[in-house]
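FIELD: query
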Amino acid sequence: MAGKDRLENVNPTIHQRVREREITPEERDDDVVDAIDAREVFDLIRNINDPEHPLSLEDLNVVEHSLVEVNDAENLVQIHFTPTIPHCSMATLIGLSIRVKLLRALPSRFKVDVIITPGTHASEHAVNKQLADKERVAAALENSHLLDVVNQCLANRSKISSS
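FIELD: result
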């Protein structure tokens, strides 16, 4: 962590949010089976709180709709995320928060991969390896302090809108 009183990225760029999607009557109907798509998954992760700023991952362009891939038929979800700076010490925590949110929200049939966007972080290989290791993720979530921090990232805050 950068230190209690010092932020790594003091003045992050805030990006325009994607317009909220309208939920159709069919999507509200529990009797209609509809495929999970990239927009639905993006909507699950867009409002995750950044660990250092009172902003969402979408506000900081850490997650983007275009970087979410879903293959409902093959039960696969892949998320690429982009840290705001190349040496972000919060990258693993951000990836862990995304993974936990999706593991809690999606049906258990899905295999979820959370990966740093190639070329955007100095330690992307090491972070990707940690996020892909089920035992490491499980061990991290057994740490009560770390779980508290992840839960803070996942807690609902008032949405900051730049639209």
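FIELD: remark
Residues 159-163 have pLDDT under 50 and may be disordered.
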